[in-house]
From TrEMBL:
InterPro entries: Cyt_c-like_dom, Cyt_c-like_dom_sf, Cyt_C_IC, Cytochrome_c-type_DH, Membr-bd_ADH_cyt_c. Gene3D superfamilies: Cytochrome c-like domain. Its main location: membrane. Coiled coil: none annotated. This is Fructose dehydrogenase cytochrome subunit.
């Protein structure tokens, strides 16, 4: 048996390779064309809101603050001052001021930079200024932006604007928000342009993002659940857009639906797990504690809101009616519990310190966390870490049994030390000064690690490098 030693001539091999390249190119072009055709078809024939979705949702949506707690559905034909008043309440429920106010002297005029993995997005002016705001927008333009993520000029909006949640808000409620915004003082201000790298500065690419991360359509009550549950679902899934901070994201920066409310990091702050898991989430919180936290920013022996959550309480949830707050809690109790791997609830760590005695007469060299704590923190939080004022509204909170100190990462504690706390509610005016300008990164790290080791989760710590990175976050919440 002879061995075949024949070989393909070099010229024919080159021809074959060229054919293969052309075939692969034609295949990819065909696949892309089919995908583009599907996108076009989806845009033209995608899901539309059913007519009944736009009807008033009986007791399943935010009541105006002036209405009694047991009020029935708001009539579809609310007009005039009642419409504006309702719109103001809904605007607060959506916390629109948080993103559209960079300078408190220019409310709703935009200009807030939002850092993303793809660059910086700057929020627009939504005052009724005709030149720089939305004064020339029609109601149809506003509805399209809220429900479809498309601006007045047909441009696709970036999902830093949470239209993926706002799409669930009924037309009547969107128009109420629009009516309220029309009453604001017009502010002539053009925010800076976005700073996004190519190709993410190409808005048309959002069609592909929407294909995988966005479903257009209004909220439909679930008859299997109570009116209170539906009311909470409408708020949480829609205007309150709780998913946006408390749900981790996929590589496209869309929300991971399989991990809803399990916690995520936003601008350096850890938005904690709010599922009913008894260890990692809020499963062992009482309903009244959760309501109190949303209404005041504080739940004694549990947590005190700071950073973006402190802002949510101050600008939004403190204004919600007791019915709406209880409805939110009812809905959150029903979502699937998700474990984060913690071994103990965040609020169950810590014991009082006695370091001040050991420090007396001791010569300290280098950066010492205990010494820095006594010098900078003990006046308000007590050198034992037990706080001052017990559970009074204006109390300085205990660092023991404190979810920020007992968390599995120390980001929020370091951020509080760097940027302080400012949370004003009808309940109390809470202020902690920022130490970022007085303390170096290694000093902030030393205090953070001392506090977590003594009063919180001893396995939680930060490095000097991590503190340096946290210091550079675009939004130092005040």
């Amino acid at each position: 048996m002879t061995k075949n030693t024949s070989r393909v001539p070099p010229e024919e091999a080159l021809v074959q390779r060229a054919r293969h390249r052309r075939f692969r190119g034609a295949t990819l072009a065909a696949a892309f064309s089919l995908f583009a055709l599907y996108v076009a078809w989806h845009e033209a024939h995608g899901p539309e809101a059913r007519p009944e979705d736009e009807l008033p949702i009986t007791r399943a949506r935010a009541d105006a603050a002036s209405q009694p707690a047991n009020a029935a559905a708001t009539p579809a034909a609310v007009t005039g001052n009642d419409l504006v008043k309702r719109g103001e309440y809904l605007t607060r429920a959506g916390d629109c001021a948080a993103c559209h106010t960079a300078d408190k002297s220019r409310p709703f005029a935009g200009g807030l930079p939002i850092d993303t993995p793809f660059g910086t997005i700057v929020t627009p002016n939504i005052t009724p200024d005709p030149a720089t705001g939305i004064g020339r927008w029609s109601d149809a333009d506003f509805l399209r932006a809220m429900h479809e993520g498309i601006g007045k000029g047909g441009e696709r909006l970036y999902p830093a604007f949470p239209y993926a949640e706002y799409t669930r808000v009924t037309e009547q409620d969107v128009l109420a928000i629009r009516a309220y915004l029309n009453t604001l003082t017009p502010i002539h201000y053009t925010p800076p342009a976005n700073n996004l790298t190519f190709p993410f500065n190409q808005r048309w690419l959002m069609a592909f993002w929407n294909l995988f991360n966005f479903t257009e359509g209004r909220f439909v009550p679930d008859p299997k659940h109570s009116a209170e549950w539906n009311r909470g679902a409408y708020l949480v899934q829609g205007l309150a857009h709780c998913d946006e901070c408390h749900t981790p994201r996929n590589f496209m920066q869309g929300l991971k639906s399989s991990s809803r409310f399990s916690g995520a990091v936003q601008a350096g702050w850890h938005a904690f797990n709010i599922t009913p898991d008894k260890i990692s989430g809020v499963g062992d919180w009482r309903n009244d504690e959760l309501v109190a936290y949303l209404a005041t920013g504080a739940a004694a022996g549990r947590a005190n809101a700071a950073g973006p959550m402190g802002e949510v309480v101050a600008d939004s949830t403190q204004y919600l009616t007791p019915v709406d707050l209880r409805s939110i809690v009812t809905y959150l109790r029903s979502v699937p519990p998700i474990s984060g791997g913690e071994t103990r609830p965040r609020h169950q760590w810590g014991s009082p310190a006695a370091d001040v005695t050991a420090l007396r007469g001791t010569t300290i060299s280098g950066v010492n966390g205990a010494q820095l704590f006594v010098a900078n923190c003990a006046t308000c939080h007590s050198w034992t870490g037990q706080g001052v004022g017990a559970s009074a509204p204006g109390a300085y909170p205990s660092l023991i049994h404190n979810s920020t100190v007992g968390a599995s990462d120390a980001n929020n504690l370091a951020m509080v030390i760097l940027h302080g706390v400012s949370r004003t509610t009808t309940h109390a005016d809470v202020l902690m000064p920022a130490f970022g300008n007085q303390l170096t990164n290694d000093q902030v790290a030393a205090i953070t690690n001392y506090v977590t080791r003594q009063f919180g989760n001893p396995q939680s710590s930060v490095t000097v490098e991590q503190v340096a990175k946290l210091r550079t976050q675009l939004r130092p919440w005040q």
